[in-house]
Amino acid sequence: MLNVRDALVSEIKDIRNQRVEAYSEYENLLPADHWKALKQSILSETDLQDGVEIIVAELEGNVVGSVVLFPPKIKAYEGFGDVLDHSEIRMLAVSPTVRGKGVALALVKECMNRVKAKGYSSIGLHTGEFMKGAINLYEQCGFKRIPEHDFEPANDGIIVKAFRYDF
Protein backbone atom coordinates (compact mmCIF):
# COMPACT_ATOMS: atom_id res chain seq x y z
CA MET A 1 0.00 0.00 0.00
CA LEU A 2 1.24 3.47 -0.90
CA ASN A 3 1.92 5.80 2.04
CA VAL A 4 2.32 9.54 1.42
CA ARG A 5 3.99 11.55 4.17
CA ASP A 6 6.37 14.40 4.95
CA ALA A 7 10.01 13.61 4.28
CA LEU A 8 12.41 13.17 7.15
CA VAL A 9 15.49 15.40 7.26
CA SER A 10 17.62 12.24 7.19
CA GLU A 11 16.07 11.29 3.82
CA ILE A 12 16.80 14.51 1.92
CA LYS A 13 20.15 13.44 0.43
CA ASP A 14 18.65 10.18 -0.86
CA ILE A 15 15.59 12.05 -2.19
CA ARG A 16 17.83 14.37 -4.21
CA ASN A 17 19.74 11.39 -5.63
CA GLN A 18 16.44 9.73 -6.52
CA ARG A 19 15.38 12.92 -8.33
CA VAL A 20 18.51 12.76 -10.51
CA GLU A 21 17.83 9.08 -11.23
CA ALA A 22 14.22 9.83 -12.18
CA TYR A 23 15.12 12.75 -14.43
CA SER A 24 18.18 11.11 -16.02
CA GLU A 25 16.03 9.68 -18.82
CA TYR A 26 16.08 13.21 -20.28
CA GLU A 27 19.87 13.63 -20.19
CA ASN A 28 20.43 12.33 -23.73
CA LEU A 29 17.38 14.16 -25.11
CA LEU A 30 18.57 17.59 -24.02
CA PRO A 31 21.45 19.83 -24.99
CA ALA A 32 24.26 19.55 -22.43
CA ASP A 33 23.70 23.03 -21.00
CA HIS A 34 19.99 22.38 -20.52
CA TRP A 35 20.62 19.08 -18.74
CA LYS A 36 23.19 20.81 -16.54
CA ALA A 37 20.66 23.52 -15.60
CA LEU A 38 17.95 20.92 -14.91
CA LYS A 39 20.25 18.77 -12.79
CA GLN A 40 21.46 21.81 -10.84
CA SER A 41 17.83 22.81 -10.24
CA ILE A 42 16.73 19.41 -8.93
CA LEU A 43 19.78 19.21 -6.65
CA SER A 44 19.44 22.78 -5.34
CA GLU A 45 18.59 23.62 -1.75
CA THR A 46 15.57 25.78 -2.66
CA ASP A 47 13.51 23.03 -1.01
CA LEU A 48 14.96 23.97 2.41
CA GLN A 49 13.33 27.44 2.53
CA ASP A 50 10.86 28.20 5.33
CA GLY A 51 7.37 27.00 4.53
CA VAL A 52 8.47 24.57 1.81
CA GLU A 53 7.24 20.98 2.21
CA ILE A 54 9.06 17.91 0.91
CA ILE A 55 6.59 15.07 0.52
CA VAL A 56 7.44 11.44 -0.17
CA ALA A 57 5.59 8.35 -1.33
CA GLU A 58 6.57 5.14 0.39
CA LEU A 59 5.87 1.64 -0.90
CA GLU A 60 6.67 -1.39 1.25
CA GLY A 61 8.82 0.80 3.51
CA ASN A 62 10.87 2.31 0.66
CA VAL A 63 10.69 5.89 -0.58
CA VAL A 64 9.75 5.56 -4.25
CA GLY A 65 8.86 9.12 -5.10
CA SER A 66 8.89 12.69 -3.89
CA VAL A 67 7.60 16.16 -4.61
CA VAL A 68 8.27 19.62 -3.24
CA LEU A 69 5.44 22.02 -2.41
CA PHE A 70 6.30 25.72 -2.29
CA PRO A 71 3.96 28.19 -0.61
CA PRO A 72 2.71 31.27 -2.51
CA LYS A 73 5.00 34.28 -2.99
CA ILE A 74 8.26 32.38 -2.57
CA LYS A 75 10.96 31.95 -5.22
CA ALA A 76 10.71 28.32 -6.35
CA TYR A 77 13.34 28.56 -9.10
CA GLU A 78 16.84 29.92 -8.64
CA GLY A 79 17.37 32.58 -11.29
CA PHE A 80 14.25 31.74 -13.32
CA GLY A 81 10.53 32.26 -13.31
CA ASP A 82 8.30 34.64 -11.43
CA VAL A 83 7.35 34.84 -7.77
CA LEU A 84 3.75 33.66 -8.00
CA ASP A 85 0.59 34.23 -5.96
CA HIS A 86 -0.14 30.51 -5.76
CA SER A 87 1.57 27.45 -4.30
CA GLU A 88 3.93 25.67 -6.67
CA ILE A 89 4.57 21.95 -7.16
CA ARG A 90 8.23 21.26 -8.00
CA MET A 91 10.62 18.39 -8.52
CA LEU A 92 8.05 15.60 -8.83
CA ALA A 93 10.14 12.46 -9.16
CA VAL A 94 9.21 8.78 -9.19
CA SER A 95 11.67 5.92 -9.17
CA PRO A 96 11.73 4.30 -12.63
CA THR A 97 11.11 0.90 -11.01
CA VAL A 98 7.58 1.85 -9.86
CA ARG A 99 6.31 4.00 -12.71
CA GLY A 100 2.73 3.36 -13.73
CA LYS A 101 1.61 2.48 -10.19
CA GLY A 102 -0.06 5.81 -9.35
CA VAL A 103 2.82 7.26 -7.32
CA ALA A 104 3.01 10.56 -9.25
CA LEU A 105 -0.77 10.97 -9.15
CA ALA A 106 -0.83 10.34 -5.38
CA LEU A 107 1.88 12.97 -4.82
CA VAL A 108 0.13 15.57 -7.01
CA LYS A 109 -3.22 14.92 -5.30
CA GLU A 110 -1.54 15.26 -1.88
CA CYS A 111 -0.17 18.67 -2.88
CA MET A 112 -3.57 19.74 -4.17
CA ASN A 113 -5.28 18.59 -0.96
CA ARG A 114 -2.76 20.40 1.26
CA VAL A 115 -3.11 23.65 -0.66
CA LYS A 116 -6.91 23.47 -0.65
CA ALA A 117 -6.94 22.69 3.10
CA LYS A 118 -4.89 25.87 3.69
CA GLY A 119 -7.62 27.88 1.98
CA TYR A 120 -5.68 28.86 -1.14
CA SER A 121 -7.60 29.20 -4.38
CA SER A 122 -5.01 27.77 -6.79
CA ILE A 123 -1.87 25.70 -7.22
CA GLY A 124 0.64 25.77 -10.03
CA LEU A 125 3.64 24.02 -11.51
CA HIS A 126 6.18 24.19 -14.31
CA THR A 127 7.36 21.33 -16.48
CA GLY A 128 9.66 20.99 -19.45
CA GLU A 129 7.91 20.79 -22.79
CA PHE A 130 9.82 17.52 -23.38
CA MET A 131 8.17 15.85 -20.32
CA LYS A 132 5.14 14.53 -22.20
CA GLY A 133 4.08 12.05 -19.51
CA ALA A 134 4.12 14.73 -16.83
CA ILE A 135 2.11 17.13 -18.99
CA ASN A 136 -0.49 14.40 -19.60
CA LEU A 137 -0.74 13.74 -15.86
CA TYR A 138 -1.18 17.41 -15.00
CA GLU A 139 -3.80 17.92 -17.69
CA GLN A 140 -5.69 14.83 -16.48
CA CYS A 141 -5.70 16.39 -12.99
CA GLY A 142 -7.29 19.53 -14.43
CA PHE A 143 -4.29 21.87 -14.63
CA LYS A 144 -4.56 24.56 -17.33
CA ARG A 145 -1.75 26.30 -19.21
CA ILE A 146 -0.70 29.78 -18.11
CA PRO A 147 1.90 30.60 -20.79
CA GLU A 148 2.53 34.08 -19.40
CA HIS A 149 4.62 32.38 -16.68
CA ASP A 150 6.68 30.13 -19.01
CA PHE A 151 10.45 30.54 -19.04
CA GLU A 152 13.50 29.36 -20.98
CA PRO A 153 16.26 28.31 -18.52
CA ALA A 154 19.12 27.57 -20.91
CA ASN A 155 18.47 29.98 -23.82
CA ASP A 156 18.19 26.99 -26.16
CA GLY A 157 14.58 27.25 -27.30
CA ILE A 158 13.35 24.64 -24.80
CA ILE A 159 10.47 26.10 -22.82
CA VAL A 160 9.48 25.27 -19.26
CA LYS A 161 5.71 25.49 -19.38
CA ALA A 162 3.54 26.89 -16.58
CA PHE A 163 0.27 25.32 -15.45
CA ARG A 164 -2.28 26.20 -12.75
CA TYR A 165 -5.26 24.52 -11.14
CA ASP A 166 -7.99 26.73 -9.65
CA PHE A 167 -10.09 25.23 -6.86
UniProtKB/TrEMBL annotation:
Keyword tags: Transferase
Highest taxon in the source lineage: Bacteria
GO MF annotation terms: N-acetyltransferase activity
Residues covered by the N-acetyltransferase domain: 2-167
InterPro entries for the chain: Acyl_CoA_acyltransferase, GNAT_dom, NAT_camello-type
Pfam family, one: Acetyltransf_1
Protein name (database record): GNAT family N-acetyltransferase
Organism this protein belongs to: Sutcliffiella cohnii
Highest classification ranks of the organism: Bacteria, Bacillati, Bacillota, Bacilli, Bacillales
